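User: I'm curious whether this sequence folds into something compact or stays loose and floppy. Could you predict its structure so I can see for myself?
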Amino acid sequence: MAAGEIRAMTGVRGVAAVFVMIYHLELNRISAEGPFSIFLNHGYLSVDLFFVLSGFVLAHVYGPSVVSGTYRFSEFLWHRIARIYPLYIVLTVAFLALALIKSQAAEFSPEVLLSNFVLLQSLGNWPSIDPPAWSVSAEMVAYLLFPLIALLCLKSGRTTAILAGFAACLAILVMTLAASWHYIGTPIAKGPLDIIVSPFTLIRCLAGFTIGQLLWRVHADPRVVSVASRTPVQAVVAILTLAALTQQDSDLVDYLMIVVLILCLSTDRGVLADFFASPPLHFLGVVSFAIYLTHYRAFGVWGLAERVFGAFDPMIRNTAATVVTALVVIAVSWLLHIMVEKPCRRWMRRGLPAIAGKPAA
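Assistant: Here's the prediction. I'll summarize afterward.
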């Protein structure tokens, strides 16, 4: 794992986590019209950014060893479990205990509990005890399939890689069209790719994961870096991405712009990369996993804050409640990062030699 951090990608992950948090907090208060409302309604696409970003970052870290043949799946999987499982299981147990206190645990059957504890609830469409964790479960499936995806995307010839990319893009296109024509999806979906039922969640994840790995392969081309790192190019990408997100039923275009955005950030140069690599956004990226897992249980904080600002105009009251709730979630996420996520990750990774059958250093 010698590859260095691309700070801009950490920052954009933090922005995406905050975006999906605001989307959930404002979900029942967003009007159906107006560019800003449409923009907020696209918050679910943050998850697609996570999937593409995850594919790229893992290719960035493990790609060289995959290509050279020195990659070890046991080490890879243990590192991924160390990265996501400790915080996930702590919060899952906490939310399950909260459900028991509120006498709401009856809905969690033994199958649901088992699937959640092994983080594979996305395979059987079982509900997540922590609702946003459906995407974490889908990513776990992607980790298990990493050797196959990496073989197709990173170690294959150009033709095979192109076919893999074509298949991934086709999957996104077909899902988008099928949802637009109401063959799949749910009545409460805010857009064509707002799909949280299996097997479409897995397709959504694996397609993004594949595209992210192929982006890593593309970004190794100096000609691509030369173009994608230019400030005018990045400025145009930022403007087009924001403009696309303000358009109704624009998920396919939005998705493509997210892919181009990540390609630009992968250069770690240019005005856009500098913006997302800034210390505040980088901090949000560091605690983004905790933000993502905790924010859905913060509606009580939102309701309390709304009552505190009850004398103000509804728009001011809602905005203030959202800002206060977001700050509380970020503060709690920081504490969880330094008290649970970071130390547990270090402790588990120290145990890797024993897992891999190696003598401890």
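Summary: The chain has a mean pLDDT of 91. The CA atoms of residues 41 and 50 lie 17 Å apart.
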